[in-house]
Amino acid sequence: MTALTLSTAAAPGLRADAIVIGVAKGDKAPVVAPGAEAVDKAYDGRLAGVLETLGASGAEGEVTKLPAPAGFKAPLVVAVGLGAEPGKDAAYGTEALRRAAGVAARALAGSKKAAFALPVADAAAVGAIGEGALLGAYAFDAYKEIGRQARDAQKGKGDGKAPLAEVAVLGGKPRDKAHKAAVERALAVAEELNRARDLVNTPPNDLNPEAFAAVAQAAAKEHGIKVQVLDEKALAKGGYGGILGVGAGSASAPRLVKLSYTSSKAKKHLAFVGKGITYDSGGISLKPAGHNETMKCDMSGAAAVFAAVVAAARLGLDVNVTGWLALAENMPSGSATRPGDVLRMYSGKTVEVLNTDAEGRLVLADALWAASAEKPDAIVDVATLTGAMMLALGSRTFGVMANDDAFRAAVVDASAEVGEASWPMPLPEHLRKGMDSPVADIANMGERMGGGLVAGLFLREFVGEGITWAHLDIAGPAFNESGPFGYTPKGGTGTAVRTLVRLAELAASGDLG
């Protein structure tokens, strides 16, 4: 993991492989951002002109490298675009800083240390720069033996570049309590989010439900979190028909993992529920070629919940957080659930399975009911649930549904605050009728149009009476199949981790309602 430090040293005298500065889009030309004054002075105040000559405009995501001026111990200056220059007396937004830091960290893969001389107006800016750099430096190469060998042979050069090893945030004050707290938070959140990315990126032959549960158990032991794992025998004894039904066709048995972080000062209790389909073939309703190659990512919701609970524990938040990981592998076989089968869920309700590829809602239903039994103040479930949500919102925005409009708004606001794009979605009552079944209490499919909303309505059926609940459909942004951008890598993204952590922080401070 990339190290993160604060430094009050002046840029010229700092020993590093590179100095990272910000450049913004001005009205007519690029503008050097605050934090780069020493670098600009060494260029006789003409740094903006030099960057413009090199083609820089200050656009978001843009990277321009140039030799460091004489007298600098670092050999390289990296100018990263911040986007539009803020208005007079306005500070650069935390998300702009986060994205710029991520872009720079990724561009400096193979380097040992980089000093980030980006605008630091306050502790929030320190945290954003640190978090963005840690997230942008992420790389998953656990299975790239050739790349690792090349990296070792070339001492970090070439195709096998190691992530940036150390980030020093210039302008940060090591003795300032707020700045230190911002760094500690950035480390905890980024490290756990990157752990979630690792889980999402791990091939399904190495991450089945049992293996995922073992990872959760190890982390729980390390961070003082109580953990309970229900195996297939315990699930059968308890009547968890949804989880068992989905996992029935796989040689890898399902698991339900409960992670409990408690604080003696807590006044609120949040429950997070994650869909954890470690591989989704679609079951008997088999996915066609072209739709199943990335289905290792169908456990992204459980990964996000797991990471958020551990981050809450590491931060010592004054709130009780329970995480429920509903883990199963959805495979076709002679023992698999068939279209037309009826499952008796943990709640006692029966569900007619019309499509075995609508399996996520079945495992979530059991976990939601289990979470409801503890009467938390609120439940938030996270799932890569429907392709319909991807069609509606694209690949970078997740949908938020809820049984309470104020809570839905609070979740959307929390996601915006941490830089995760979300959009409020309705739960139209007229769509519920489409799930009426002639043989069971409800079917797992309804009208095709508005399929993401139908899935939300199905889940609502398994939330305990009087409990505030929100559903995050992260199908779009959970797995990035295009190129990296900002601090987001190709592959698993760790979407929703930061939103869940922020909700826990708001609950701890009494600001969640």
Description:
This protein is of the alpha/beta class and about 525 residues long. The chain is built from 15 helices and 20 strands. The strands form four sheets. The protein has an eight-stranded mixed β-sheet, with helices on both faces. Strands 1, 2, 3, 4, 5, 6 and 7 form a seven-stranded mixed β-sheet that branches. α4 (about 125-135) packs parallel to α6 (about 175-200) and α10 packs parallel to α15. The protein starts with a strand and ends with a helix. The model has no long low-confidence stretch (mean pLDDT about 95).
- Approximately how much helix is present in the residues? 25-40%
Form type:
elongated
Structural class: alpha/beta
| Strand order across the largest sheet | 8-9-11-10-14-18-15-16
Q: How many helices?
A: 15
Oligomer: single chain
Distance between the termini: 36 Å
Measured by DSSP, the beta-strand proportion falls in 15-25%
Computed CA radius of gyration, to the nearest angstrom? 24 Å
Profile the largest sheet. Answer: 8 strands, mixed
SSE topology sketch:
Blueprint: E1 3-7, E2 18-25, E3 30-32, H1 37-42, H2 47-53, E4 63-67, E5 76-84, H3 94-107, E6 113-117, H4 123-136, H5 145-153, E7 166-170, H6 177-201, H7 209-223, E8 226-230, H8 232-238, H9 241-247, E9 255-261, E10 269-280, H10 300-315, E11 320-330, E12 342-344, E13 350-352, H11 360-372, E14 378-383, H12 387-393, E15 398-402, H13 405-418, E16 422-424, E17 442-443, H14 451-460, E18 468-473, E19 479-480, E20 491-492, H15 497-509
Parallel strand pairs: 1-7, 2-5, 2-6, 6-7, 10-11, 10-14, 13-17, 14-18, 15-16
Antiparallel strand pairs: 2-3, 4-5, 8-9, 9-11, 12-13, 15-18, 19-20
